[in-house]
Design brief:
Length: 590
């Protein structure tokens, strides 16, 4: 795990000073080492978090002079040992013991098709010394980020948007379409867009090849279709699906144990993280380190789920640590959490992951986390209604969109509101899957689009802010492919994640499985009061906010006067969403 960056120029030499500035802005992603390489119109940088092959031989940028290849790589290829053996049998010789060199040899042996052999999370840039060709790749589910900006004769990329901004010469004008998506989709802006006109992100499961003359070629190398079955699937019983799922999850958790450092678990006490602990225990993983975080309650809204995480920790005898966060510490952490965001993220649990990661990184460098299970296995409360929906577009708007277009017309400056871009996005997405059922369309858009740019991105950003690698077994691409084949009713039945709960029954106590669904709670950001409301008021009344003119001042005044009057369909604060975007822009000097 680390941060990568680079620049490709067709009009002259690269600036090594600019690259070092970009690389330096990602120090938290890779605190253990740094390196840069430049030659002619190519330059690459890397920040290292040492997890596999701790020796200097695995330092990046990694060059293989015999093959004429170089690479900067962020992530982990979990099956690298199997691939290494296969490549060794082909006659390749290795000078290191980690996964980075395996990518180089795999590319030489199989070309860009090598990515289809990788089981893991990754974003990398690989270059050919003799041809000058550069290849960028992002993993299937977009677990590892890759942002880029283009100008005449120049292509520049990095693992985070703030790092790109640190390099300068970026168009920071707000993108009205990206803004519309940010407010509508709970801060998820589907790739390739971001909220800034001059910054894009490489789509998941995508290869981007840049030729020496600047020509670009994109290839999507993987996809999945929810509801698409294989021969024999219709004959499978519920128990058959349970057994197949249990085996697939066990393999996914086992793969993510590969490391030369200890591996822990972020244990919320919910089904997903509890199941990870149970599977690790069944695999014989001894001395499991588990970590749970809690905040002060607000009114009747609890700020922790320690009761359940304690049950799981005791059941599996983990080395468990409770992390209790007083309100003042959560408030103090807000600027740091916002600075750690590659893009503005409205979910109030971002600060929870930020604080949790800061504590956990003192003990381990790698954790497994349960993100993605809700989207992949149908865990959200609004899913069952789509089993009988006759108008999935409108029903999805009512269930999911934080702001409707008419709401945004009240909030945003007139020049930033055009068409109903977000509803049109949903319409196009669903129309492209004309033969799918309503529920399968919704599960598809959530797993393919919303999950990538909300919970997955959030966990990466907040853990990497403390140099902590988070691995997500529920996003193993083989698990996702399997889940897509499982009939929708077996996923959303009985409050959601039915089939996952059934798979867990032989591993977890029933009261952990059948408990009411919880969330990673930070009540003070859901119900803005006291110093948290003062923080928001300060952001929205600051000189940059007044000068920017992003919002209609009368509507901001209305929300500040009645903070809980404007809540999204899912019960999130619209005031916080508006303030968070403005705070992120100010933090990044925009």
């Amino acid at each position: 795990m680390c941060g990568i960056c680079g620049e490709v120029r067709t009009d002259g030499q690269v600036s090594l000073a600019t690259l070092e500035r970009i690389n330096g802005a990602m120090q938290s992603r890779g605190p253990d080492a740094a390196g840069v390489y430049a030659q002619g119109g190519l330059a690459f940088g890397h920040r290292r978090l040492s997890i596999l092959d701790l020796s200097a031989a695995a330092q990046q940028p990694m060059l293989d002079p015999d093959l004429g290849l170089g690479i900067v790589f962020n992530g982990c290829i979990y099956n690298f040992k199997e691939l290494r053996s296969e490549l060794t049998a082909k006659g390749y010789r290795f000078f290191s013991h980690g996964d980075t060199e395996v990518i180089l040899k795999a590319y030489h042996a199989w070309g860009t098709g090598c990515v289809r052999r990788f089981k893991g999370m990754f974003a990398f840039a690989l270059w050919e010394r003799d041809s000058g060709r550069v290849v960028l790749a992002r993993d299937r589910l977009g677990i590892k980020p890759l942002y880029y900006t283009e100008a005449q004769g120049r292509f520049r990329f990095a693992s985070s948007m703030p790092a790109l901004l640190a390099g300068g010469d970026v168009d920071t004008a707000l993108d009205p379409v990206g803004l519309h998506h940010y407010f509508s989709f709970h801060a998820a802006v589907p790739a390739p867009r971001t909220v800034l006109r001059g910054v894009k992100k490489l789509e998941p499961a995508t290869l981007l090849t840049i030729e020496p003359d600047g020509r670009q070629r994109r290839e999507r190398y993987w996809s999945f279709e929810v509801g698409e079955s294989r021969p024999g699937d219709r004959s499978l019983s519920e128990q058959d699906w349970v057994e197949v799922l249990s085996d697939s999850l066990t393999r996914a958790v086992d793969r993510r144990r590969v490391a030369d450092v200890p591996v822990g678990v972020l244990l919320s006490g919910g089904l997903d993280s509890s199941l990870l602990v149970a599977l690790l225990s069944r695999l014989g993983h001894h001395d499991i380190r588990s970590f749970a975080i809690g905040f002060e309650a607000v009114g009747e809204h609890a700020g922790d789920e320690f009761h359940y995480s304690d049950i799981v920790a005791k059941t599996f005898a983990t080395d468990h640590q409770q992390i209790r966060i007083p309100q003042e510490r959560a408030l103090d952490a807000l600027p740091g959490a916002i600075a750690a965001m590659s893009e503005p993220m409205v979910s109030h649990d971002a600060v929870a992951f930020y604080l949790l990661s800061a504590e956990v990184s003192k003990h381990v460098k790698v954790v497994q986390s349960g993100q993605g299970a809700d989207e992949v296995f149908g865990g959200y409360s609004w899913y069952p209604r789509f089993l009988t929906s006759n108008d999935p577009v409108q029903d999805y708007q009512r269930a999911y969109l934080d702001w409707r277009h008419s709401d945004l017309e009240r909030l945003l400056a007139p020049d930033l509101v055009g068409e109903d871009e977000s509803l049109q996005f949903v319409e196009r997405f669903f129309a492209a899957r004309d033969g799918a059922s309503a529920i399968d369309k919704v599960l598809q858009i959530d797993a393919e689009i919303m999950m990538v740019d909300d919970p997955v991105k959030r966990v990466d950003n907040m853990t990497m802010a403390s140099g902590l690698e988070a691995r997500v077994p529920f996003l193993d691409h083989e698990v996702v492919e399997l889940a897509a084949r499982i009939p929708a009713d077996l996923k959303v039945r009985d409050g959601g994640k039915y089939i996952l709960k059934e798979a867990a029954r032989c591993l977890l106590p029933a009261h952990v499985i059948d408990r009411p669904k919880g969330y990673f709670p930070v009540p003070a950001l859901r119900y803005l009061r006291g110093p948290f409301l003062d923080f928001v008021r300060g952001v929205l009344s600051a000189e940059p906010a007044r000068t920017r003119g992003l919002y209609r001042r009368d509507f901001i005044a209305h929300m500040l006067a009645r903070p809980e009057a404007e809540m999204s369909p899912k019960g999130h604060s619209r005031l916080w969403q508006a303030a968070l975007l403005e705070a992120w822009l100010q933090t990044n000097g925009i």
